[in-house]
Design brief:
Strand order of the largest sheet: 2-1-3-4
Structural class: alpha+beta
Number of domains: 2
Strand content: 15-25%
Distance between the termini: 46 Å
Helix content: 40-55%
Largest sheet: 4 strands, mixed
Length: about 130
């Protein structure tokens, strides 16, 4: 991002989030319509930097969690609270069931994957036996 637009883009991203810090589509649309109306100098560069920061923020807010079985609501809420504590910002959990995991979980947080499942343990055991 160009340095001269950094503070402006940061402010636009803040205005695109609700009071919990979660990006909302309606707020993004308000920011975009305001930019469209006033068209500041360098508006294309500002838009590019803004979209880059919005995408980055959205990736940090979405955590994909896969379970080998159907999880209960108390597990999901405690996991969400713990992840928000670790990441120090609001997140959205996308929970799914993956029967290939057999038992356990896989968590994707931005580019990091944390997994503890029967499938991963069997895979590691298989690799150690074949090497």
């Amino acid at each position: 991002m160009l340095f001269r637009y950094k503070s402006l883009v940061h402010e636009l991203v803040k205005r695109s989030a609700n009071e919990d810090g979660v990006i909302e589509m309606s707020l993004v649309q308000q920011v975009l319509s305001s930019l469209r109306e006033c068209q500041p100098a360098g508006h294309r560069e500002i838009l590019k930097a803004y979209f880059f920061e919005i995408r980055k923020t959205l990736r940090q807010q979405l955590v994909e969690v896969e379970f080998g079985c159907q999880p209960n609501e108390s597990l999901i809420s405690s996991l969400k609270n713990k992840l928000e504590e670790i990441t120090s910002h609001s997140i959205e959990l996308q929970v799914s069931q993956n029967d290939q995991l057999i038992a356990g979980y896989r968590i994707r947080l931005v580019d990091d994957v944390f997994e503890d499942s029967i499938q991963s343990r069997l895979s590691k055991l298989s690799q150690s036996l074949t090497s």
